Amino acid sequence: MKLSIRYKILISFSFVFLIGISVLIYATERIINNNNEFIIKNEMIQGRKDIDIYLKQYFVLNNVEPSKSIFKIDGKNIIEELSFRVGQDVTLYSNKGELLWTTSNNEINKEKKDLQLAMQGKTAYTISKVKDKVIVNLSYPVYFKNDALGIISYSKEYTELYKKSNHIINIIKIIGLALFLLILIISFIISKRITKPIIKLTEASKEITKGNFDVEFKHDSSDETGELALSFKNMVERIKNQILTIEKDRDTLKNLEMSRKLFFDNVTHELKTPITTILGYAEIIERNGFTDEEFFKKGMGHIIGESKRLNRMVIELLELSKNTTGDFNYSFSKVNLSNLLKVTCEEMAIRAKRYNIQIDDIIEDGLFVKGDEDKLKEIFVNLLDNSIKYGYVNSIIQVKVFKNDNKAFISMEDRGEGIPKEELENIFQPFYRINKKLSRKKGGNGLGLPIVKAIVEKHGGNICIESELKQGTIVTIEIPCI
């Protein structure tokens, strides 16, 4: 497994400090435990001295000569007196470890190590835990004139001493753990700061090898790594800018080529249809002559109609080209938008009556814009014409004009078949029609809306279309007011 420099530094620091803190905790624990044992040992020695003094005083005051029989006969009074004086339980055994007398209510364990050692003539004490209590038992033989009279066992509780010691040890462990964590965090921060520029350079290099030059690299250090990072950053920026320039030019050329191909494909297709119709009828008329007068009139009607449509299409193509390329000379002036829309609605209402369609207008007075009046009228005529052509018979077209945030908003809403949502994004493409058959029947060639959009944008405005199938369409235009 490969370890980074950061983690090598972190592990090294952590390992050293962990060993140091562990040694410190262990040494402290050993010192405290040794100190506890030292205290217990001294108190046990002092306890034996006190018991010996009490025994001598007892024998002197009672004018009794120490003997084994006295321990058996008067042992009860002896241990009760000793227990009273030392304040702890005292047990009296024979030389063979037989229990003679005791002041303890607890069960006596005859297999205690200290008792076994006392039976061998030694002084011994043991430390044991009984129900979360630390009990120290001292056992030693009692001699009189080198004659062993019996064994005295003395018990003392040291629970508080060990609790305090354990508390101190636990505090030291917590402090040690906190220090270790603090050192771990500091080591991590230091190692991260040291290795950060190197890691960033490595990651950036990997991204660049993948072809991704859009990498961010910041390093504020003024040392050697900072200088390296700055040089690397400048190199990447220079390469990135060159590649972006190349890609931008490539995409622009690609989009232009696609747009040109699509446009010419559409133009070819749209021009081919009326020319095919004209050519077909012309060839039949040439072949048959004037023998079939009815067919002759019908054919000539188609030829004239398709010729007019062809002429109209060519004119609109030229107009679209001028509007989109900027070749068209706009005559901008102060235009009374309110009056222009009122007049346009009145004029288009005459055509709408043929289909029993009513145009209702709510137009705010006194709205002025800077624009070309003829071109603006062309927008409104085109949109109202679409609403009439594709709206339901016996329906209403609502035209609303109002001012908001220093902009004129023109809304035209009709009731008709509507436009599918998936078609809305393509509606402004030249020659794009949702229903080509219906559009040709109604005289549409897919150039009206692209021309409208180009004119609106030349006036610094925006146009959007919302539509719902079987409900209708809403066209909204916004143009800056003056």
What does this protein look like?
The protein is α+β, with helices and mostly antiparallel strands and 482 residues long. It folds into three domains: 5-168, PAS domain (Beta-Lactamase), CATH 3.30.450; 213-328, Signal transduction histidine kinase, dimerisation/phosphotransfer (DHp) domain (Helix Hairpins, Orthogonal Bundle); 329-480, Histidine kinase-like ATPase, C-terminal domain (Heat Shock Protein 90), CATH 3.30.565. Helices cover 59% and strands 18% of the residues. It has helices at residues 5-61, 68-73, 75-86, 113-119, 159-209, 224-288, 293-325, 337-352, 373-390, 421-424, 436-441, 448-458; strands spanning 90-93, 99-102, 124-130, 133-144, 147-157, 333-336, 358-363, 368-371, 396-404, 407-414, 462-468, 472-480. It has a five-stranded antiparallel beta sheet with strand order 2-1-5-4-3. A five-stranded mixed beta sheet has the order 7-9-10-12-11, with helices on one face. A two-stranded antiparallel sheet has the order 6-8. Helix 8 (337-352) packs parallel to helix 9. The relative contact order is 0.06.
